[in-house]
Amino acid sequence: MIRLVRFVFIIAVLMAVYFLRVSPTEASECSHYLLPGSATCSANSLPDSQTFVTPETIDDTLFGRRVYARLADNANVYPEPSRGVAPVRNVGDGFLYVTVNYWEKINGETWYQINNGEFVHEDDILQIPASDFRGVAITQQPERPFGWVVQDVQPSSQPDGEPNPSLAELPRSTFFEIFEVAVGQDDWLWYDIGDGRWIRQTFVSVVDVNPRPDDVGPNDFWTEVDLYEQTFAAYEGDQMVYATLISSGLNRWPTREGLFQVWDRYEEYKMSGAEGKVDYYFLEDVPYIMYFDDLTGIALHGTYWHDRFGYKHSHGCVNMPILDAEWVFNWSAEASNDLWVWVHTSDPNDLISES
Most buried by CB count within 10 Å: which residue of 120, 132, 197, 234? Predict the structure, then answer.
């Protein structure tokens, strides 16, 4: 990677460019939402590379056009913005998320309209900014494994080494490539990510190129969901074209392994499940849904209610950042085949022979 080192302006601009081994950029980017005063930041900056590029955002994206919110347990929903009238319903308890049409202040209190003729008081609703994380578009076959930091980490100077305070801390979402793999104590893998920096595998999620499953044709569009690494990759034939982080099913609700094909899709639709149970959930306007496992009703889809990508976090579906789900939704719509989805558990030790 090319690291740009900026010097201060004195009389004229003096800039020097140093060519180093590939390493993640340390700058972070922030994006602001429709919510008043809210913003989120990510460190999803990319190396100066011809292989990995930031995908373009389409003009009619859903991202940033919706205001999402979580309802409190047993919140009352009123037909007008007033507690002086009888509620039209009580939402019960569970993981309850809605989209907000608008909000207004009345007598010093804020009311949110969640549907036509349905209002919730500010005490019973919390606005949720969706994650702005996004993966990478890939212009040529990657030469080496790559991935993202999923937990802030201070790199070491060698495998099993102590964190080196002279090396910059890598925040969550930092992109990197792997140049060498070593086996450390307790058989944990350590990754050389360039510039004399080593990080243990427990802090990262990794993507590596894999061959097509047997039933996938040489020109087919297909995707790979890696349950071990919690990563996703998209392919056209043998060429990887996209990659990102995901969240698959928790151990209680595991995502089923196998080779599937997308059989139904929705740009936006509600999702609900486990009614009457402690883990009941209701999610309005889930974006970019692509159902692939008809036995269990599992889908790839955009996710606004958490930012835990890189870790298991779902009831079985493959949760994706909204911008990545949008990319996959539009890309796969152009495929000549129903999109293949290969769900499997990789073995990280396979990386040892590649280093």
Answer: 120
